[in-house]
């Protein structure tokens, strides 16, 4: 199955902040349109839903919402396009995609609390010690 990604052209410099902002919205739309194909390529249906992936993409974009320099925005947009192309062209393996976009930076922290509920006092101290 060949999937062609419509390239969002990113010029070296945006003329204004509004133009760079418009390109970011175009990139977000293109990334959201590629989600069904990414779900199929990497067989992610059992791990994550398309809406969760869409939220993760939005969160990654919002991390840089305070940047006002159009050149920096263009550079970040180029990096995002490169990442999207790598994912769509299957240059990454399934565990890379799951590790970066499903589990994320916080890891499996939400599951850690449920594992400690039935543990003994010894195990709770062991998990919180410096040796673990």
Automatic annotation (TrEMBL):
Localisation per UniProt entry: Mitochondrion inner membrane
GO biological processes: response to oxidative stress
GO cellular component terms, A-Z: mitochondrial inner membrane; respiratory chain complex I
Membrane topology: Peripheral membrane protein
Keyword annotations: Electron transport, Membrane, Mitochondrion, Mitochondrion inner membrane, Respiratory chain, Transport
Record InterPro entries: Complex1_LYR_NDUFA6_LYRM6, NADH_Ub_cplx-1_asu_su-6
Family: Belongs to the complex I LYR family.
Protein name: NADH dehydrogenase [ubiquinone] 1 alpha subcomplex subunit 6
